[in-house]
Amino acid sequence: LDADDLLPRAQVRFEPREIEELIAGRRILVTGAAGSIGSEICRQVAELEPATLVLVDTDENALYLQYRELQARHPSLVIAPEVADVRDPRRLRGIGAQYRPQDVFHAAARKHVPFMESMPEEAIKTNVTGCRTVARMATEVGVERFVLISTDKAVGPSSVMGASKRLAEFIVRDEAERSPVRFTVVRFGNVLGSAGSVVPLFKAQIAGGGPVTVTHPECTRYLMTIREAVGLVLLAGLNHPADLCILEMGDPIRILDLARLMITMSGRVPDEDVSIVFTG
């Protein structure tokens, strides 16, 4: 089962040549480079022949694997892995001064909604303070374009994670008022198949014979593929300074319907072979 097969609409397509013109020959830095979104940004950017690609992440194991993968695919590309925490201003300033990136994609974040409800200080330290650190570094070292990865959960936020990302948006908007850097915010819906998302959870639950857990029968989400998410970052993010960019994702779908679809596509019958439980 491919996560992209679950999208209830046609995928949004981006023009590769237009994106290539925005990246080729430039010095690029990606925070959260070993995460689901960050790693896909790195893969797609590497294909477009930048001058340098700097990978920043705190997870040294995942970063090492990401570096090896990119190095094998693009042996002539200058790739610089840096184990660093976006909450460490001195370390970030050092990386910025060393590589002088022209474009920064800030994908590092705490994103797990239930975890951040019980550990709100971690959401603030990374999503708010970390964003401020990277944005200020961008201004200090003369970055030209800065793209913040945000979320639709920042709209009228009802969770700590959503509120922390809304604050990150405000920080970027505020920095843009007194900085020559071209700041852009892109908001994602739920990315199908990303780490910690509902699709791999449901796949594991179905493989184990169930039950599949859904919070509420009327819970809905906007869904997008990872290629759509990264296309939005690269094309809209680099083309629309000081704007808020949101991909047209059609109508939201019920998570219950997604669960039933995944059970059916695995060759089983919902509520007979595999039960669905509402957890509240």
Give a short summary of the structure.
The chain is an alpha/beta fold. It has helices at residues 16-23, 36-47, 60-73, 89-99, 113-118, 120-141, 160-177, 198-207, 226-239, 255-265, and strands at residues 27-31, 52-57, 78-83, 103-106, 145-151, 182-188, 190-191, 212-214, 220-221, 223-224, 244-246, 253-254, 276-278.
Key attributes of the depicted protein:
alpha/beta; two-stranded parallel sheet; 10 helices; globular
List the helices and strands and how they pair.
Blueprint: H1 16-23, E1 27-31, H2 36-47, E2 52-57, H3 60-73, E3 78-83, H4 89-99, E4 103-106, H5 113-118, H6 120-141, E5 145-151, H7 160-177, E6 182-188, E7 190-191, H8 198-207, E8 212-214, E9 220-221, E10 223-224, H9 226-239, E11 244-246, E12 253-254, H10 255-265, E13 276-278
Parallel strand pairs: 1-2, 1-4, 2-3, 4-5, 5-6, 6-11, 7-10, 8-13
Antiparallel strand pairs: 9-12
Question: How would you explain this protein's 3D organization?
Answer:
It is a single chain. By secondary structure, this protein is of the alpha/beta class. It contains 10 helices and 13 strands. The strands form 4 sheets. The protein has a 7-stranded parallel β-sheet with strand order 3-2-1-4-5-6-11, with helices on both faces. Strands 7-10 form a two-stranded parallel ribbon. The two termini are 27 Å apart. 39% of the residues are buried. The mean pLDDT is 92.
